[in-house]
Design goal:
This protein is about 85% helix and about 0% strand. The chain contains 5 helices and no strands. The chain is globular.
Length: about 150
């Protein structure tokens, strides 16, 4: 391997490491805020039921794990392109949160729990608000981490 390709390879690993750190930090930050909102709405036992529990604590843990994986999805796949600044990051976070609202509570969770797909009611609209807040916090924290390690 030439020294030029080694430097290039190390740079890409370093960039990936920054994006992973940004996804984890943003996912936890957004997940904590969204988790508190979910706790206030009494939704954590519903999340826990996805793993066979009814415990709010288990639900919060499951929610945080999901939050980190979703955060990694944003930063690892799209970090350099869509998280270059706070304004662009906030807009990206809103869109990403909205996408995950459709995928999560409107599609994946109902399939897992034998409920109807795309059921939009007051609870679903409150979930939309939570997903939008999560997405913005995820993206803004990720931008901050990416900028601080650059």
């Amino acid at each position: 391997m030439s020294s030029a390709s080694a430097v290039s390879h190390q740079g890409s690993v370093s960039g990936l490491g920054r994006r992973v750190a940004a996804g984890v930090a943003g996912g936890i930050a957004g997940g904590l805020v969204f988790g508190v909102l979910m706790a206030m709405m009494g939704m954590l036992p519903v999340i826990a039921s996805m793993v066979g529990s009814s415990s709010a604590v288990v639900g919060f843990g499951v929610h945080l794990v999901i939050s980190v994986f979703i955060g990694l999805g944003l930063t690892v796949l799209f970090g350099n392109r869509f998280l270059s600044g706070y304004g662009r990051g906030a807009l990206t976070g809103l869109g990403y949160g909205a996408i995950w609202w459709v995928l999560g509570p409107l599609m994946i969770m109902p399939v897992m729990m034998g409920m109807p797909l795309f059921a939009v009611d007051l609870t679903a609209l409150m979930s939309l608000m939570g997903h939008l807040i999560y997405g913005v916090i995820l993206a803004l924290v990720a931008v901050r981490v990416l900028k601080s390690q650059a």
